[in-house]
Write a structure and sequence with these properties.
The complex is a heterodimer of chains A (596) and B (162).
Chain A lengths: L6 H24 L8 H25 L1 E4 L3 E6 L5 E6 L3 E8 L1 H6 L1 E8 L7 E7 H16 L5 H15 L7 E6 L2 H10 L3 H14 L20 H29 L3 E5 L2 E6 L4 E7 L3 E9 H5 L2 E8 L16 E5 H11 L12 H28 L16 H10 L2 E4 L3 E6 L3 E8 L5 E6 L1 H5 L2 E7 L11 E7 H32 L14 H8 L7 H9 L11 H10 L10 H16 L1
Antiparallel strand pairs in A: 1-2, 2-3, 4-5, 4-10, 5-6, 7-8, 8-9, 9-10, 11-12, 11-16, 12-13, 14-15, 15-16, 17-18, 18-19
Helix pairs in contact in A: 1-2, 6-8, 7-8, 11-12, 14-15
Chain B lengths: L1 E2 L4 H30 L6 H29 L1 E4 L3 E6 L4 E7 L3 E7 L2 H6 L2 E7 L6 E7 L1 H17 L7
Classes of the chains: A alpha+beta (596), B alpha+beta (162).
């Protein structure tokens, strides 16, 4: 498959802007006329730059090929140096579609494919047709989510379906979340966009004609009061902050406008943006950690945010900024409900750190204040820079409050299936880690913690968000409890993995029969999808034939009776399955074939 | 619990001396350059001497920490995980389940080679403690440990790491 033909002019345009300007400067320097520059030469250089750009983009378009095979997504690209890349579909973590205003007008979109490992986006398609982008997104996530599907029938059928309708089948999407007007308003007003301050600086310098003083109403300040300079400065700062705030609100509004989160099968699908449209998928099977963030102004209004982190990247990292997330802002109850629909975690009932942790924070703050004042004192005695070093002493009154708030906002829960860790007063984050996602467990005890017999436990996961944000760390818990939790985390990880493995084997053995029966695996949402979406397969005999030849045979087959038992427990035994006698035979047969 | 080979101790002490030497060089050199270049109201020799004192303190602290590090370092190959205890100021105890081991390296740097030691590095897909290194092993022990960990990682055959 090739890219959309419109990608040639679009890419050329964006490229010509860069190469053209480059040649513009080269032309100025190289023009024989000296300082003034020969208009003709400059023009010619610019044209050469543009033509070269177009030629390159045409060649790029000509040589770019992508293809979805049953197991891999192949991309061959490159004009000068060629690169053939095959990404196993199962390894794909996220598929994003991005469109800005111009691209929307042209009906093209950029597709980004992320896998775990490596900081960069693994595959970028610039640009394909809108419908094609959606089809790719759909097909890739179908492929990546069902590892045990038989591709022969189901895969083909779905492909043709997609080609014909070009859209998702109705009734399959389940709308999980749509941002409400009040939520968007609160979000826009209170979010500080890091880019806004830079933009505000530029805007203000334009508005003032590059002379910042023009914005300050000198007339008002002509009164010969002492400290006029200070007022002028304060005024300038005020204007700047206001401009930055307005811009930040506008940027946030346009970024999250029309935010929708839907669930398609076992994938989350999000869309957002007013001018620039973003859409992406988060495979539920690959969720590493859930993060509920309740920052200070939002928490007062009863709002919170939810981030779903995969190993590819958390949705926030796409634009190298951490302000975006799975749900930018919603009422607390909705956030909890949605988080539960992704990971059915139990009630939050966090254990608090022991009271001596609070003492520790108080001592820490006092220590920091003393240090500041000590430095201030030294500077005051030896230089004239600082005078009122003791002004900081006022802050000592705040110390108990600060220590208490820090302590009260920390906690952890060593639950049945999930590990919770909460921290932060200003930006309170609650991390929810399923045990089977834990990579390693780290116990840390600083010198100061040791004095108070406290320690911190981190449940490390492969979530790439942890590179930038916080890890799931339970701070300042009692030493004995910490060691207990560390042991327990490892044990539960092993237990859960074993359970998942057993269930996967079950799915593998019976997935011919389980078709559409909606196996009720209440406790562990994601694993049951392995065997689920194999609709269109009813002849269990044929599938069994296929499965028999599968290479990855279960290593330690369970005694057949156990499966028998578990299978009977499944609710919807509507299909006419082989009788249990036959079943037993079949399993036994499989066993013997394995042991051979 | 297994301990490291005692030969690693002088290596760590030597490294500490070299590193704090570099740090001290920068600090004292900076102080001297500062007092030469500008004329502040501070007694010049005081600044230089305090820089020297700082460098000496850093040197002593680092050497002591390097010396103590050996006595703290412990590791154990358990039934289902690798357990490591280390850290003088901040005590760190790491549990790495074998299921999560991606690959295992054994390394020998120039200094390690000169005293006949090796390091085993265990990689996981985790983001924080992405790799765990066990230094101060004899080359034989490093080989056997690597092989042991490799076997255990294969036996515990988990699902995909991510």
């Amino acid at each position: 498959m090739k890219l959309h033909p419109m990608s040639v002019p679009y890419r050329s345009l964006s490229r010509s802007l860069s190469t053209g300007s480059l040649f513009f400067f080269v032309g100025i320097i190289a023009s024989p006329g000296g300082a003034g520059g020969n208009l003709l030469v400059i023009g010619a250089m610019v044209v050469v730059g543009i033509v070269l750009g177009i030629a390159y983009e045409y060649a790029y378009y000509k040589r770019f090929r992508y293809e979805i095979t049953p197991d891999t997504f192949d991309v061959a690209s490159g004009v000068v140096s060629r690169r053939d890349r095959e990404v196993p579909v199962r390894r794909i973590q996220n598929v994003d579609v991005r469109q800005n205003v111009l691209q929307r007008a042209l009906g093209i979109a950029a597709v980004h494919v992320e896998t775990a490992g490596g900081g960069e986006t693994e595959i970028t398609l610039q640009y394909v047709d809108e419908a094609e982008a959606n089809r790719l997104q759909r097909q890739l996530r179908n492929g990546s989510s069902s590892r045990s599907r038989s591709r022969a029938t189901a895969g083909d059928r779905e492909t043709t379906d997609d080609l014909e309708s070009g859209d998702t089948r109705p009734g399959e999407d389940e709308l999980l979340f749509e941002i409400r007007r009040n939520e968007l308003a609160v979000l826009s007003v209170f979010t500080i966009d890091p880019g806004a301050s830079a933009l505000a600086t530029i805007a203000l310098s334009f508005a003032s004609g590059f002379d910042p003083t023009t914005l300050v109403p000198i007339d008002l300040l002509e009164a010969d009061l002492p400290g006029t300079g200070l007022i002028a400065l304060a005024w300038a700062v005020l204007i700047f902050l206001f401009a930055a705030w307005v811009l930040s609100a506008v940027l946030t509004f346009s970024r999250y406008y029309g935010f929708r989160l839907t669930r398609v099968g076992d994938e989350l699908h999000y869309e957002r943006g007013l001018l620039q449209r973003y859409s992406g998928t988060i495979p539920l099977e690959k969720v590493q950690t859930l993060t509920i963030e309740e920052s200070i102004p939002f928490r007062w209004f009863g709002y919170g945010a939810l981030a779903v982190e995969t190993a590819g990247y958390a949705p926030g990292q796409s634009g190298s900024r951490g302000t975006e997330s799975a749900i930018p802002l919603a009422e607390r109850g909705r956030v909890r409900r949605l988080a539960r629909s992704i990971e059915p975690f139990e009630r939050e009932d966090l254990e608090r750190a022991p009271l001596r942790a609070r003492e520790r924070y108080a001592f820490r703050y006092i220590g920091v204040l003393c240090l500041i004042m000590g430095v201030g004192y030294l500077l005051a005695t030896y230089t004239e820079v600082v005078e009122d070093w003791h002004a900081f002493a006022v802050l000592l009154f705040v110390v108990p409050v600060a220590a208490h708030l820090k302590w009260a906002n920390r906690g952890f829960q060593f639950g049945d299936r999930y590990f919770f860790a909460r921290t932060g007063f200003w930006r309170r984050t609650t991390k929810i880690v399923p045990y089977y996602r834990v990579q390693s467990v780290v116990y840390q005890q600083t010198l100061f913690q040791r004095r108070r017999r406290l320690a911190s436990i981190t449940a490390d996961t492969a979530s790439s968000a942890a590179f930038f944000g916080r890890a799931a760390t339970a701070y300042d818990i009692d030493v004995t409890r910490a060691l207990q939790v560390q042991q327990g985390l490892n044990e539960r990880l092993q237990e859960r993995l074993l359970e998942r493995k057993r269930r996967r084997q079950l799915d593998r053995w019976f997935d011919g029969d389980d078709v559409g029966s909606g196996v009720s695996v209440d406790d562990d949402q994601k694993s049951h999808t392995d065997g689920l979406d194999i609709d269109g397969l009813d002849g269990s005999e044929t599938t069994n034939g296929g499965h028999g030849s599968r290479k990855e045979s279960p290593t330690e087959p369970e005694p057949p009776d156990e499966h028998e038992h578990e299978r009977r427990d499944e609710p919807n035994e509507t299909r006419d399955r082989p009788s249990s006698e036959d079943d037993r035979d079949r399993t036994d047969g499989r066993d013997s074939s394995n042991s051979q | 619990m297994e301990r490291l080979n005692p030969r690693v101790r002088p290596v760590w002490v030597l490294l500490a001396i070299v590193r704090s030497g570099i740090f001290g060089g920068f600090v004292v050199g900076g102080a001297v350059a500062f007092t030469r270049g500008t004329d502040v109201g501070i007694d010049e020799s005081l600044l230089v001497w305090s820089a020297v004192a700082l460098a000496v303190v850093v040197l002593i602290v680092r050497v002591v920490i390097a010396w103590l590090r050996y006595s703290v370092w412990r590791f154990e190959v358990r039934a289902d995980s690798l357990y490591i205890e280390r850290g003088v100021l901040t005590r760190v105890k790491t549990v790495v389940p074998f299921v999560r081991v991606q690959h295992v390296d054994s390394q020998r740097g120039p200094i390690e080679r000169s005293v006949g030691l090796a390091t085993v590095v265990v990689y996981t897909a985790g983001s924080r403690s992405a790799d765990v290194a066990i230094p101060g092993l004899t080359p034989d022990r490093a080989e056997t440990l690597r092989e042991e960990l490799r076997q255990l990682a294969i036996e515990s055959e988990g699902e995909d790491a991510v």
